[in-house]
Amino acid sequence: MDGLIKDTLVNALGGKRVLITGDTGFKGAWLALWLRELGADVVGYALPPEKDQDHFNLLKLDQLIHHVTGDIRDLKAMETVFREFEPELVFHLAAQSLVRFSYAEPKQTFDTNVGGSLNVLECIRTTSSIRALVYVTSDKCYKNREWIWGYRENDELGGHDPYSASKAAAELLFSSYMDSFFSSRDGFGAASVRAGNVIGGGDWATDRIFPDCIRSLLKKEPVYLRNPHATRPWQHVLDPLYGYLLTAVRLLQDPKQYSGSWNFGPGGTSLRTVKQLADKIVLCWGEGEVQVNGDARQLAPHEAHLLNLCCDKAHTMLDWHPRWEFDTAVGETVRWYREVAARHPVLDLSRRQIYEYMGEQHD
Predict the structure, then answer these.
(1) What CATH number corresponds to the domain at position 246?
(2) Structure pTM?
(3) Beta partners for 69?
């Protein structure tokens, strides 16, 4: 497989006009850079990055792609971008992506994740140039029954917290537009994609375990955990992004066969508790300590303890498999943060990780 990934992606996506919503976000910035390296003509549409050290800013991504600052809740502004750029392929990633924030700002969460997604679907419906849509939601769109086995794409949707419910609602919107408008559209394919807990360089979000750990380690403070026993399917950001890209390739080749929903999660060996992840981060960092904050757990809003995806469909139909298992994913992520802290050029570092993931040497 090594050496073939880049050729497969370049042959299908090189030269394509690609629009990404949410290119200033964690996954969006990585995806925009990867597509740019593949030779795609990329335009991003998103709110401004929140922090100076966000990956988008460190990459100076606005100098590498076309970027338009805007809000997916603003239909008129988005319609202008779709009309002027005439994309062939759309990746919808823009979202309010934090569970705990959704408790503080439920309306903003629903307005963005439901209303904003509806606006994206409307732009897709009225833009004839678009051949494929990859519509990103979350593994949290499933009604979580704390099962020990993975959720399949046809399992029940639901959500206890506002974030999870908003993602389930976004999936219902997608299904409605597929049935009402997209299934009969010639030469067009659309897929909703669902991934687990993603780690990787460039994530500085609040209340996410990896950036919380890195902030503590950089300050030489203990890493405090509020929910140490929660189990998650940890995966490096490049693994699900490869799934999204491969889905796009297949949609362009055979839109009817590959339209639908797809799970992209890590292998079973990457299912670890929050405590196990934090311990591994500290080990790779080379110093630090992990402590459990019992008071924080008692005051925290509800969070799922166990969540896993069944990815048999992607394994069988797309020949997609995670390439970086737990140890590699954590090690590569820690390496990114350490090298950035040592002031290594972020663009070179991020490009190198993309090419290493594809099994290629970085020039």
Answers:
(1) 3.40.50.720
(2) 0.94
(3) 46
